[in-house]
Structure formats: structure tokens, C-alpha cells
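task queued by scheduler; priority normal; single chain, no ligands, no partner chains; default sampling; output format set to C-alpha cells
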Amino acid sequence: MASHPAALTSEAPDSGGGLYVLLLELGAPARLEVGRLGVFDAAAGWYAYAGSAHGPGGLRGRLAHHLRPVRTPHWHIDVLREVAPLRQIWWAHAAAADEHSVAAALLALPGGRLPFPRFGASDCKCAAHLVWFAAPPAFVDWLHVAPAHGWRPFGVAPA
């Protein structure tokens, strides 16, 4: 079972809309049952998930969800969060909900590959919104490919 973050280590975003990347570390291989997508064998390593938040609560509300322990998985990423601790979040304010460009940019980072088809992308035509890395992707590399401006990282303190 994943440890769950207790607090953000720096200033969190406000309730405005925006884009985010969740970075999770899976220390050992795990089998994931992801609803209608099926069962996947997840390799140990780092997973980067692309998301957007433009509804009630904006970024603050969505990230608060991702920082809480999973009780009942709501989204695909919640299944992975059950076994892989959240290590960092990258976020940016953005007027448009374009997690599709974020997912494509993550895949452009060195060493990125798609681990499971359609993960996080059941409501769009993207191949997936999740990218796997053997080692953690660097924020400085992200800034070279990110689809929006003003990206900020914050680390997550383990519980």
C-alpha cells in the first residue's frame, strides 16, 4: 500500500483552473485492476499523470483529492495511487482544459513511454494520459516541452 502525503511542502495553487502533472513512484512491480480497461502489470519506476482542473474548486480542489488517501477509486489514477506514493506535483494556471497536450509533452521527455493503453484517457482520443519513466523526470526538462507557461513544482511530504 502506498504511503499518503500529509502536506504540501510549498505554496499550493488557488482555486483557479489549470493543468497538472502527478509524479508517483512505484517501488516494486504491481498488478492493477483498472475498471473496464482491465488488468495491467505495472513495472517499478516513475509514473507521470497528466490532468486538468476547471470545475468547482479548480486546481486546489482537484489536487486536494489527489493528496487524500484513496477510499474508493474514482478515476484511473486513483487505482495507481493506491500502490504508488505521490512524490511531486507540477502545475500551471491555464484557461483551457488541455491535458491532452500535457500528456503528449510528457511522452516527449527523455525515457518516457506509454505503460497502459487508454489509461486516464477514456473520454478522449489520446493514447493515454500516463507516462512511465525508469528514473524520475526532471522538472527542468519539463520546462522545455511543457505546453503552457508558468509551471511550478511542489514536493509532497510523506505521511
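post-processing summary
- The first helix runs from residue 58 to 67.
- The helical segments are 58-67, 76-81, 99-107, 139-145.
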